[in-house]
Write a structure and sequence with these properties.
The strands form two sheets. This protein has a four-stranded parallel sheet, sandwiched between helices. The protein has 14 helices and eight strands. It is an alpha/beta fold and 386 residues long. It binds iron/sulfur cluster (SF4). Residues 37-39, 91-92, 95, 237-238, 261, 293, 295, 331-332 line the site of iron/sulfur cluster (SF4).
């Protein structure tokens, strides 16, 4: 396939958190708001005069570093001095510890205006939970931004933020839909780069290039002969490293769908406002109900998550599922083990279960695992006459 026109530009934007567009967003007078988890609604950090940046620690070289520690290391190196506030959620342990260090050690972020806020997120998905979550978002996000930075948090402002988010959500989703084709005109690696830039750059500065990329993909000719052996769905916890996906694809498995913390299947869903609903309630409902995070532990929720994964696998014509969790990720280590048993048993999907580092230096071992998985799925396909 011909290279995507903006791919190198997008890859460059992912080389550091304080990238060219983040700097431009700040030069334009906007407040830069960091976050780490899906439960901090990105859309509320994109209110007029602000922009959201999902924090990453690209090119982290520390051995045995997990997500939260890599972020803290990057913060101590001065790599996050550009953020004006970090808005966290009481969700994953490692990201909570990261937030506590920012909150209690006043010399981690070298920025005189730097502030933090911590939001509580319910463990259930019911009307009471939506109500509680809405109240938390009102106090810990909207009131925080209004009081500390003078941000307009009116319904009109939230609607504007929903509009720009939906524009980006719809473009990325439309690009992702091409992955359902038998021979997709986009690789999983390219798609992960596109999804990630949409999360780490001010949306008003990246949306034109995303739209142009969509138009390009509509006309892009895939290679005549597909150069993959099987198609896989990638599920699991945080993964903001496109090279991890490149590694999977180099073993012959095309990544066609991504249900993980930095994937598109949740983060890029269109936000709908139901009739008679105020925009903040719509946001609370959307983020709580669309999440397929393993922290919801009710039995019916846990079982429903398997069905959602199997449905995605069917929709994207995946032959197998790779479930990854980062080292020390409590929720997903249990979920991964359950997935490994339940998805093959109840839904017929082979599973490759991986515990990974934040940045994967041990690629030799992973390569061996992925190659073995690809071979076993290929064999299964031959036996089933597919
Ligand atoms: S695993 Fe769940 S709680 Fe943790 S970062 Fe992902 S969405 Fe948030």
């Amino acid at each position: 396939m011909r290279d995507l026109k903006h791919l190198i530009y997008f890859e460059d934007l992912l080389q550091e958190a304080n990238n060219e567009l983040v700097r431009k967003g700040k030069e334009d007078g906007n407040i830069c708001l960091g976050y780490t988890c899906y439960f901090m609604p990105e859309v509320l950090l994109d209110l007029p005069g602000c922009f959201a940046v999902r924090l990453r620690a690209p090119r982290c070289t520390s051995p045995d570093c997990h997500y939260g520690r890599s972020l803290l290391e990057r913060a101590l190196e001065g790599g996050f001095n550009f953020i004006d506030a970090q808005l966290a959620t009481e969700t994953c342990t490692v990201t909570c510890r990261f937030q506590e260090h920012l909150e209690y050690m006043d010399d981690v972020i070298n920025n005189a205006t730097f502030k933090t806020s911590f939001t509580d997120v319910p463990f259930k998905k019911n009307e009471n939970s939506i109500d509680h979550y809405r109240k938390q978002l009102k106090i810990k996000v909207l009131d925080f931004l209004a009081n500390e930075f003078g941000v307009d948090t009116s319904d009109k402002a939230i609607l504007k933020a929903i509009e720009i988010n939906n524009e980006v959500n719809d473009i990325v989703t439309e690009i992702g839909n091409f992955r359902k084709l038998e021979n997709p005109p986009i690789t999983g690696y390219e798609f992960s780069v596109i999804t990630l830039v949409s999360m780490v750059c001010p949306k008003y500065l990246i949306v034109d290039k995303l739209r142009e990329t969509l138009e390009e993909i509509k006309k892009r000719e895939p290679d005549d002969k597909p150069n993959f052996k099987i198609r896989v769905l990638l599920a699991g916890s945080e993964n903001d490293d496109p090279d991890f996906i490149k590694l999977i694809e180099s073993c012959g498995a095309l990544v066609v769908a991504d249900r993980h913390c930095y994937g598109s299947l949740e983060a890029r869903q269109h936000i709908n406002i139901e009739e008679g609903e105020d925009p903040l309630t719509a946001v609370a409902r959307h983020y709580l109900l669309t999440s397929q995070c393993a922290r919801f532990m009710e039995q019916q929720e846990m079982r429903h998550r398997k069905k959602v994964l199997a449905d995605y696998a069917k929709e994207y014509k995946a032959d197998g599922i790779i479930v990854e969790s980062n080292k020390f990720c409590e929720y997903w280590s249990f979920e991964r083990m359950i997935d490994t048993i339940v998805l093959p048993r109840d839904f017929g999907y082979p599973v490759c279960s991986i515990e990974k580092e934040y940045i994967n230096t041990a690629s030799g071992q992973l390569r061996t695992r992925f190659q073995a998985f690809v071979e076993s799925v290929e064999l299964k396909k031959i036996q089933e006459g597919k």
